[in-house]
Design brief:
With 402 residues, this protein is an alpha+beta fold. It has two domains: 5-128, no CATH class; 142-388, no CATH class. Helix content is 38%, strand content 10%. The protein has 15 helices and nine strands. The chain has helices at residues 5-9, 11-29, 89-105, 139-144, 151-155, 158-170, 221-231, 242-249, 253-257, 261-268, 272-287, 289-308, 340-349, 358-364, 385-388, and strands at residues 43-45, 48-50, 55-57, 65-70, 73-79, 113-118, 122-128, 181-183, 189-191. The protein has a five-stranded antiparallel β-sheet. A two-stranded antiparallel sheet has the order 1-2. Strands 8-9 form a two-stranded antiparallel ribbon. Strand 8 and strand 9 form a beta hairpin. The protein is globular, with a radius of gyration of 23 Å.
């Protein structure tokens, strides 16, 4: 069995070693990096003044963090650098933008954030610290070991998780492992650490919702939950994302894009062509939000029907087997009938089945998620009528490097 520093000296000691190594690297690199402009030490955060250098925080990772404020309201300052100390302003700016989009989706659960510079630590982000429930479900632990909590405990959290999924989809943020969610004293799931947003905005796998795209070593919480739903291993109310969709649909283009101004100014550096490419990619995720969910949920439902023999849910599908949202006409929906008793019995007796694959949905002629398919299904000679009408949008063209 391979040994690690953590297994030998313990978690807390390993963190100190990691931060010590980081400190040595940073002390060398920061001698040569461009210094960011800083503001005075008295920092105004919406009328609240913070002062002093802050107390070093060690929550994991390698980026320096400091705690400011009083016991009743604390803020976490995180330096805008990469893992070895090179300046990365976009990380702090995207943290603030993440808070802006959270506010559009649900102001009550947004994590307040502000990107700015201070004399002691340079440019970075202030994030208001959330008082977490120490007895709440650890979603990162559950991802690693699904047996660590009853599935019903996770199902209670899924309305909040679907809400946060909308935010992360709009931000093209795939750094969404269970560790990047906290549960506050009111039992609400709240997403943190959005600084990886738009890192994959031009990658093919990021253009459509699916359960396969995993750009980071740890799988996303969303991939885990949606896959379990498709297998029939847990329940979701797919209507829980409806409120977020309706809010985003009402926002005019210019008002929405204004939320990303700081990021676009920094990323595009006055290049109008590059800026347009990013703006178009950002707006594509907003404008196509409802239909993207429709395609994704349709694929999940058909996978769930196959994996559970259609005994575990009532699905709002139209005559073309497509998902219907609750604010649309459900008067003629095609449901799969079942009772709670049937559902429980099916859950106990149904054999464990593999998730439905895109090619299987394709062969059925259903409206599934086939964006990642590399070859045509051999079981048919021509596209299904339902699939042939699909509005496939090619991935945005990456900006030209200068």
């Amino acid at each position: 069995m391979a040994l690690s520093i953590k297994s030998i000296i313990g978690d807390n000691a390993a963190k100190k070693v990691r931060h010590g190594i980081y400190g040595v690297l940073r002390s060398v690199i920061t001698r040569f990096r461009r210094q960011d402009n800083t503001l005075s030490e008295n920092v105004d955060l919406g009328g609240q003044t913070l002062s002093g250098e802050g107390v070093r925080a060690r929550f994991g990772g390698t980026k320096p963090m400091y705690i400011y404020g009083e016991d009743n309201e604390k803020w976490l300052f995180k330096e805008a650098v990469n893992c070895v100390g090179m300046s990365k302003r976009s990380g702090a700016i995207l943290t603030e933008i993440g808070a802006n989009i959270q506010k559009l989706v649900d102001p009550d659960t947004a994590i307040e954030a502000k990107a700015l510079g201070i004399r002691a630590h340079g440019f970075g982000s202030f994030q208001k610290m959330v008082e977490v429930d120490p007895n709440a479900v650890d979603l990162f632990k559950w991802q690693k070991n699904p047996e660590s909590y009853p599935i019903e405990k996770i199902e209670e959290l899924t309305p909040d998780i679907l809400r946060e999924h909308t935010t992360d989809w709009l931000l093209c943020n795939f750094d969404t492992k269970g560790e990047n969610f906290v549960i506050d004293k009111k039992g609400r799931v709240r997403g943190i650490d959005k600084e990886q947003a738009f890192s994959h905005i031009f990658k093919e796998g990021a253009q459509h919702m699916n359960t396969e795209f995993q750009p980071n070593p740890n799988n996303t919480l969303y991939n885990t939950i949606f896959s379990k739903y498709a297998k029939g291993e847990m329940n979701l109310n797919l209507d829980d994302c409806m409120g977020a969709i309706q809010k985003i649909e009402k926002i005019p283009r210019d008002e929405y894009l204004n939320n990303f101004k700081g990021f676009l100014d920094t990323k595009c550096d006055g290049d109008p062509e590059k800026r347009k490419q990013y703006e178009d990619a950002i707006m594509a995720r907003k404008d196509g939000l409802r239909e993207e969910y429709r395609k994704f949920f349709t694929g999940l439902i058909h996978g769930r029907v196959l994996n559970t023999q259609g005994k575990q849910d009532v699905y709002p599908l139209d005559e073309n087997n497509r998902f219907i949202f609750k604010d649309e006409d459900r008067s003629k929906v095609k449901n799969v009938d079942r009772s709670s008793e049937m559902q429980n019995k099916a859950r106990e007796n149904a054999p464990k089945r593999m998730p439905i694959k895109a090619k299987d949905l394709d062969a059925m002629g259903t409206f599934g998620n086939t964006d990642n398919r590399k070859e045509k299904s051999p079981v048919r000679d021509k596209p299904s009528p339902n699939l042939s009408n699909r509005n496939k949008v090619p991935p945005p063209v990456p900006p030209k490097k200068k």
